[in-house]
Amino acid sequence: MKVGIVGLGYWGPNLVRNFQADNEIEKVIGCDKEPERLNYIKLRFPNVELMDSFDNLLLSDVDAVAIATPVNTHYKFAKRVLEAGKHVWVEKPFTSNSAQARDLIELAGKKDLKVFVDHTFLYAGAVKKIKEIVESGELGDIIYFDSVRINLGLFQHDVNVIWDLVPHDLAIMNYVLKDKTPVAVTANGIANYYDQENIAHISIHFKSEDCFAHFHVNWTSPVKIRRMILVGTKKMLVYDDMENSEKIKVYDCGIEMLSSKEKIRKALVQYRIGDMYSPKVIQTEALALGVKEFVSAIKEGRQPLTNGHDGLEVVRILEASDKSIKNRGCLIELEEKEIIKPAVKTFEREDFIKKIRIMSNGL
Amino acid sequence: MKVGIVGLGYWGPNLVRNFQADNEIEKVIGCDKEPERLNYIKLRFPNVELMDSFDNLLLSDVDAVAIATPVNTHYKFAKRVLEAGKHVWVEKPFTSNSAQARDLIELAGKKDLKVFVDHTFLYAGAVKKIKEIVESGELGDIIYFDSVRINLGLFQHDVNVIWDLVPHDLAIMNYVLKDKTPVAVTANGIANYYDQENIAHISIHFKSEDCFAHFHVNWTSPVKIRRMILVGTKKMLVYDDMENSEKIKVYDCGIEMLSSKEKIRKALVQYRIGDMYSPKVIQTEALALGVKEFVSAIKEGRQPLTNGHDGLEVVRILEASDKSIKNRGCLIELEEKEIIKPAVKTFEREDFIKKIRIMSNGL
Amino acid sequence: MKVGIVGLGYWGPNLVRNFQADNEIEKVIGCDKEPERLNYIKLRFPNVELMDSFDNLLLSDVDAVAIATPVNTHYKFAKRVLEAGKHVWVEKPFTSNSAQARDLIELAGKKDLKVFVDHTFLYAGAVKKIKEIVESGELGDIIYFDSVRINLGLFQHDVNVIWDLVPHDLAIMNYVLKDKTPVAVTANGIANYYDQENIAHISIHFKSEDCFAHFHVNWTSPVKIRRMILVGTKKMLVYDDMENSEKIKVYDCGIEMLSSKEKIRKALVQYRIGDMYSPKVIQTEALALGVKEFVSAIKEGRQPLTNGHDGLEVVRILEASDKSIKNRGCLIELEEKEIIKPAVKTFEREDFIKKIRIMSNGL
Amino acid sequence: MKVGIVGLGYWGPNLVRNFQADNEIEKVIGCDKEPERLNYIKLRFPNVELMDSFDNLLLSDVDAVAIATPVNTHYKFAKRVLEAGKHVWVEKPFTSNSAQARDLIELAGKKDLKVFVDHTFLYAGAVKKIKEIVESGELGDIIYFDSVRINLGLFQHDVNVIWDLVPHDLAIMNYVLKDKTPVAVTANGIANYYDQENIAHISIHFKSEDCFAHFHVNWTSPVKIRRMILVGTKKMLVYDDMENSEKIKVYDCGIEMLSSKEKIRKALVQYRIGDMYSPKVIQTEALALGVKEFVSAIKEGRQPLTNGHDGLEVVRILEASDKSIKNRGCLIELEEKEIIKPAVKTFEREDFIKKIRIMSNGL
Known about the structure:
Four copies of one chain form a homotetramer. Chain A folds into two domains: about 160 residues, Rossmann fold, CATH 3.40.50.720; about 160 residues, Dihydrodipicolinate Reductase, domain 2, CATH 3.30.360.10. The first copy, chain A, has a nine-stranded mixed sheet with strand order 14-13-12-11-7-10-9-8-15. By secondary structure, chain A is α/β, with parallel strands linked by helices. Chain A starts with a strand and ends with a helix. Chain A contains ten helices and 15 strands. In chain A, helix 4 packs parallel to helix 5 and helix 5 packs antiparallel against helix 9. The interface between A and B is large, with 56 and 56 residues. Strand 14 of chain A pairs antiparallel with strand 14 of chain C.
């Protein structure tokens, strides 16, 4: 398989490196308008072919194109890739709005092409392990999902902190809580420096009213925190991505209702604390596994784990969050989860998890 | 001075211990309906006089009464204390609603009595130090105040997690950011176990639109976090109350706007990272200093640092937060900060800080 | 049972509090020459009888006496207690040298009295749990025991840091590794301020040459560390006493020899890393359980868990360490573990562990 | 300048990368007997010339050769490099014994060639900063140097944990405490798996008897710790290399003697605790700065910061430590620090620090 990569700025070189390292990829073509970026790649990856014209890239024999350009150009580039009959890999967030996302999904469906949205974290060992633990039922039903992703971060000039950082966390939430349906969003925050918000707090309400989620993203924190807390009816889990080891901790603790109503002065609810354990997590680079999944999905004629629909689900919440934060936290309802019928057979998640595990063991 | 303490449950014994240890207090009378609580105090503090009747306590020669009963009884008890011509100490939150708070302030004003609201944290060495740092201007203007107070906590049967935990953090915010005026509140969260919310996220908007605050309180977190982040235009501060030492860290880091507009591909904002320092913090028990301030205020005929107005300011935000969380995050506007004219000369904050420092050095 | 407590300085008040709180103790008599210390106790524990004469205490009807005086007076006081026909509780370290320890053990044996040495940590939930884990065989054979106990500590004027701090760690080592026999000791360190060493590093060699232990004690460290590492042939354990929760972590990791000799460029040894877990630890105050054990041992006519022999074993290593540090790390061999035949039936450790567990559950 | 690199195993590729990235280096030749290693480099660094014969490398036009082969071959290869009239870079530890080190220093002196010993940590921003702080006198006189470098490490088949890990820490100690003279060494530890010790504790005594150092190195610890504590007479410093930020903390705390002798029951020594600060540390890769120093020293005809003498000083202590650990901690005295008169002008440390700072600012 041959792959083109458009946009060789901050993230593009990582795509170049990982596509080039994959056994199934014979050729990688890098594409950027700026000579300085082409030169940067040339020095580090002498085997990569380089082009300064997107038109020429589409005329080449690549089977797929990865898009790592600014968000507001994703749609434009991805559409042309699909129209040229090639599969497409799009960096997160998928598109600037949900209409664009729907359009791309439909177009890919018609042309029987694959859309891969790079929700990289879903290929990280830690998230894979959390998914396994949640699906095993060990935590019970999830009633709270809390995510904090803050540090002194690189300000983006074209999008706010919501579009920049929350896609990671929303993708993880949608993946791990796949049977929960978000129905409404509120977001609050502030834009201290220019018109893009640099701090945001997003709350998500679900169809089943016994679950709640919150996301804190922030470009202006002196401390770097990347932590998720999942509270289940049986156990609780903390995922701290800043830890070198012990990224995941599962706490055998929970809340229990007391049936007796007589103890009027005491709480009617008590908690239980037991052992904690921290499962071993696979260290393989997430992006390398993402590339593998993209290639496999194309070869097997199936949807990848992180496909256009997953991209759309994230974009819908981003869109609603943005609308809410512009209206001082006004509640924005989401329409029902849309199913745009896929033209090809659906991806089987369980199979993928097993496959990833096998691949990772071999590494 | 002689003091009565009503309510000898969870917090009352701490009041007994600290009032008894204060040099200025000659007599402490404990009061509770339940014989078991009276017995508990008798065993530990044999010198404390005990009563099972609030009426009798009011008939005694105590100069002041401290109220450590459930929130919804604060108003009832405090009113009778003031009517009996005695000064009153009320645990946080001051009252169940702002009307009650206003009523007590007015009554105390008429009778020239003091109302002390036990926002204990304002007497803690760490908060004192933060106040000093902020007032020195070292951080610049505060543009973000973030507070997290979560753990596997004791559920309250009569109030939700907002009324239970946020008063601490709101009192600190009002103290440290005394020149900022909160104008609107939104709150989101969930009640997973019974009708009281166990998780809440509260956003506060200010009159000057370049400041924003957020509070996360939670009774159902497997990890205990008590951390505040203050972002200033010059420096940033983190207060981690779970640290044994190094509770406060001041980061010489900040965000700077780039004037040049030409670098279109790069961020227009950059950050600077410098040294960090952690100032020494006085260890004296906060409650002991609170007792000293109560006694001094009465003797000097002035308002205490944490008086009824401070209690009212906190209650107003609690009230609005509660209204918002009941309405899925609907924005609740606060009326202008009310000034109920005090009958006696106002407390001078700067003097108090100096005084506390002197007292603490001597310990 | 009635108990006298001699020495009401730094540690004595803790003994007073715990003996007084125990159900089996009817009367507590405090004894100290200094009026100021007697007054201190009087204010806090009005029910405790006070004496300023040790002679009078021995004439009283107490069944046992606890000694919390400076180390070099332990022997003198303990001997008179035993001669007066009373059981004795001695703070750590047991005595100033091993000859004194042997003398007390013999005297108690002749008079059929109990000697309790206050190695308090052996009654702490964490140490209890470590003992259980080691005895279960889960860690395999222990090949390394490492202990660090350092901070900016209170200098003792009469003993060096070895006699002050290592008794805790040696008692834990002897308890947890009861089947290992220490045979030689070296100690290095420095006395920076006066004639007592403030820093010491002690190495212990064992009869079975596949085990090694090291102890770092230090009064002059800016950071406070209290951590033990136990390396077993199967798993490894870390005990961090500064953690609020997760004091113990058991790592399923180990070292494995590779049989193949062909890979000459690669290591012949590889390691394996698996999950980690942190068991729940009982929070009951160790000293309270120590008091219970003392009382039970007397009533049941058996040796307590931490008896004179345990005290002697610790003192022998302290003695050797002190000799070594005075001679720049010269290796000091220990004689074979001495068995002074006890006059009464021996304490059964396994029973005690079970009993402690039952008691703790009820709390 | 042209450089050859011998040994392309674990560390060699890092040398290739850093030499290749340096502006002053025109050509890099890699050399290894094993085709697999040559191939590894070829794929990653297509511009590097490759050779499988060391003889041919010496015949080439390289100005200098870097040696990254097993320790026991350092001397053999380095000698031939010098004999061939080329400058030499040797990985740590410099040689297998001090006689070899002296021989190489002498040979280089005669031929007016430079010997660089790769004590990489001396080029790390954190160590640079510690050096600055110590030299400024801020800490007062250093009385204690404690180093812990432990984790589940890669066992070496040809050397024990002392030769593998302590060179880093000894080099730092010699650099930071350049005016202290080590005079005696004791080492204790154990070899649990084969004939090479996997755990070692090394104590160092100094000429001035008010300083002491200790090193703990360990391949079999479940937790990774890389921490140094420097206790000065004025302040204390902790260097934790596992921290992402805040690697260095300077504590304004110290120990003070009380002059009064009357308080017989109290300690004669007290401690003072003040603020802490954590200076910003330069992030430039240490190895890149090492390469710069090597190239500059050659061009300027001066000794590099980490030259043969520095290598010899470290080897002398390693040699003594090894002798001691083989003899159960027997004290091994070091001869006086040897000065083999350098043939060329000496390196000026202060200049280098300033230079490094200038270089780093530009990055």
